[in-house]
Amino acid sequence: MTARRIVVISAGLSTPSSSRQLADRLLADSAGLLRERGVEVDAKVFELRDLAHDITNHLLMGFAPPKLEEALDAVASADGLIVVTPIFTTSYAGLFKSFIDVIDPQALTDLPVLIGATGGTPRHSLAIDYAIRPLFTYLHAIPVTTGVFAATGDWGGGGDGVRSLPDRIFRGATEFADLVERTDRSDMLSDPFALDRPMGHLLGGLAGE
Questions:
Q1: Helix H segments across the chain?
Q2: Beta bridge partners of 142
Q3: What's the pLDDT tens digit per position in 73-121?
Q4: Are 7 and 176 in contact (CB under 8 A)?
Q5: Which part of the chain is the NADPH-dependent FMN reductase-like domain (predicted)?
Q6: How far apart are the first and last CA of the chain?
Q7: pLDDT tens-digit profile of 147-156?
């Protein structure tokens, strides 16, 4: 079986970031489960704060700079996507939504998605189901049933009194690994209209690397 490509998107703004910490935990459990089943994993992690200016320029100009284009291409060719965003004012971060806005809508079709979110209080956990999940469903992705929310208190081991954060991470990762193992998105790699070089390079006369 060929390696499964997993892309991780973290929309945390601080350093260190609890969103990145959750993303790393979700990836570790997902990749571990897949490797136990004999499935190799090729993982790429992108921090949106490093791409913030490129995302804005893309929204204004319509062209993706090379670093952003790498992230967009990775998502388009992925077998699974892990996304984690902080919750601001009861919903996902603006930077996270802006990144979703510059993805080719067709790139997410039938793509398994494991959703994670972070916030100061467990009250924000509902944002996964009323804001983030509908976004990916609208784009024809396949979000797994279990979304993983990590409040500040979860990192101390207290959890939400129902299921600990490690348990929730493992449950979401298990559902995600099941979908990724069965996913075949090889056709996403063959685009008869694909360009040999980025459009910005062609228009600007820049030499491809």
A1: 18-36, 52-61, 66-76, 94-102, 127, 133-138, 165-182, 199-204
A2: 112
A3: 999 999 999 999 999 988 999 999 999 999 998 999 999 999 999 998 8
A4: no
A5: 5-155
A6: 31
A7: 999 998 888 6
In DSSP terms, 5 is beta-bridged to 42
The dotted CATH code for 4-204 is 3.40.50.360
Tokens of 178: 């099941």
Q: What are the sequence ranges of the domains in the chain?
A: 4-204
146, 112 in Cβ contact below 8 A? no
In DSSP terms, 112 is beta-bridged to 142
Dihedral pair phi/psi, residue 46, rounded to 5°: -125, 130
Cis? peptide before 16, omega within 30° of 0: yes
Amino acid, single-letter form, for residue 96: F
CB 185 within 8 A of CB 77: yes
